Amino acid sequence: MIDLYSDTTTRPTAAMRRAMAEAPVGDEQRGYDPTTSALQERGAQMLGKEAAIFLVSATMANLIACRLHTRPGEAVILDAACHILNAEGGGLAVHSGLVPRIVMGDRGRFTPEQVREQIAGPGYYRPHTTLLACEQTHNLGGGAVWPLAQLEAVCAVAREARMKTHLDRARLFNASVASGVPAAAFAAPFDTVMICLSKGLGAPTGALLAGSAEAIARARGLKQLFGGSMRQSGVLAAAGLHALEHHISRLAEDHANARRLAAGLARIPGFSVEPVETNLVFVRVQESGFTAPELAARAREAGVDVSVSAPTRLRLVTHMDVSAADIERAIEVFHTIAGRGR
Ligand SMILES: Cc1ncc(COP(=O)(O)O)c(C=O)c1O
Fold first, then answer.
1. In the chain, which stretches have pLDDT less than 50?
2. Ligand 1 pocket: which residues have CB below 6 Å?
3. Residue 188: predicted pLDDT
4. Which of 40, 106, 157, 303 is found 20 to 30 A from 79 (Cα to Cα)?
5. Backbone phi, then psi, for 185, in 5-degree steps?
């Protein structure tokens, strides 16, 4: 099967498995796991923050960040299509009692004016807006990369209003490799930043939440509260350390494969390919005579797995387990399916 379903489907390489097997470990809950500590230090350093905490998933990192910066009944400003709002089980309401104040971004990116419009004025009718959350790269926004200046501008508006800021950077290094902007520069305007280790970076699980030493000390308590404390987590942290060391620069290959895939799919009548900036390729198929679920089912039968993002929108994701030859094969499969008709 050629797996273009998600970059979460990567499997640990032999070298990563060796690093996991050989990792020194201890009791993480008590702060005695040396490999977890090393990963946290490395992550904080790469992100230019004082401290970082290793968490089991990117979802947990986002949820802890929301809780860390707010009190129940307050409001978080975020994009309509962001992961925190659409794919975390309503956790921002359940775990933090937050009200979403939604902005309609352009491929997930919004402007300082849009943030200003959502900030609650004085008085007690509207919930206080205390957190701004951005997503980089933006998943449902098509893997779009926020320009650094735009992130700085929206955070400046939030800071003026004494709000906190959080960056969901599940695919942070894709953004850095695509734009040439260092990871720490993207992180600088934010109070907290999350990076996911199990997407394009290829670790089997895990994420880091980074911020000030004070914020991360409080996040430690929330990790316990959310049931996220671990024991010999060095086995998992070793995979994260290996990924940070060996799997960042190769993301450029995934981006090249995504562009190749987009160009091939764009030649299929009825397929409209959205602009590709990183490793996510979204295709609108309403003119093809097929629905997205129909195309995904036929592609799967032919050995290509892709995901359905909406009834007429497909998502195809490139990653380290997909080669340039796989891309050519996937393009052929879609040409055959769409050419054959219903
Ligand atoms: C932008 C973004 N944030 C957070 C997550 C959550 O990651 P996980 O499912 O590994 O917790 C995802 C997953 O796809 C994502 O795309």
1. 342
2. 57-59, 62, 83, 135, 139, 168, 170, 196, 198
3. 97
4. 40
5. -70, -40
